[in-house]
């Protein structure tokens, strides 16, 4: 069942790799959101995360760790996106919501909580069978079609 993404995130302050924070509502309002459940110790995560980074960076300009320093180091290496603060119970809530069964997991969701891709998202990004903009458009269309 779809869940309002911003309502689920509530008043959480998302953190960036430089330690700065921003309210989730401010950072994500009106956007298609990708939730990447990943960890520094997970070899498949280390393969997926650089692909997600390239995907994200190309669209802009073109979760789960053992410790907060691990999370920040992972973000330093692999991308400058928003993260839910280390240890926040919201991570478990979202993990349950998206039925994360193992790492990595990448879910694309609209503001109303309609999932555009979960099982295929990581493969779509890693295999690059479609252009990044085409893939983003496809995900947006899926969520719009389901919402109607």
Automatic annotation (TrEMBL):
Q: Which residues form the Thioredoxin domain?
A: 3-137
Q: Which GO terms describe its biological process?
A: photoreceptor cell maintenance; sensory perception
| Source species, domain of life | Eukaryota
Which PROSITE patterns does the UniProt entry name for this protein? THIOREDOXIN_2
Stretches assigned to coiled coil: none
- Per its UniProt record, what InterPro entries does this chain match? RdCVF2, Thioredoxin-like_fold, Thioredoxin-like_sf, Thioredoxin_domain
Pfam families (UniProt xref):
Thioredoxin_8 (PF13905)
Q: Where does the sequence pass through the membrane?
A: none
Under the heading PANTHER family, the entry gives:
NUCLEOREDOXIN-LIKE PROTEIN 2
Q: What is this protein called?
A: Thioredoxin domain-containing protein
What species is given as this protein's source?
A: Mesorhabditis spiculigera
């Amino acid at each position: 069942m779809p869940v309002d993404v911003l309502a689920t995130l509530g008043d959480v302050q998302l953190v960036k790799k430089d330690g700065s924070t921003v309210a989730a509502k401010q950072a994500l309002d009106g956007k298609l959101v990708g939730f990447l459940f990943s960890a520094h110790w997970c070899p498949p995560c280390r393969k997926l995360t650089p692909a997600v980074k390239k995907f994200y960076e190309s669209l802009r300009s073109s979760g789960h760790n053992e410790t907060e320093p691990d999370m920040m180091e992972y973000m330093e290496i692999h991308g400058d996106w928003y993260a839910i603060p280390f240890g926040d119970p919201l991570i478990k809530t979202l993990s349950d919501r998206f039925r994360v069964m193992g790492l990595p997991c990448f879910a694309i969701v609209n503001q109303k909580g309609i999932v555009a891709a979960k099982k295929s998202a990581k493969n779509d990004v890693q295999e690059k069978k479609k252009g990044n903009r085409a893939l983003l458009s496809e995900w947006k269309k899926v969520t719009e079609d389901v919402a109607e």
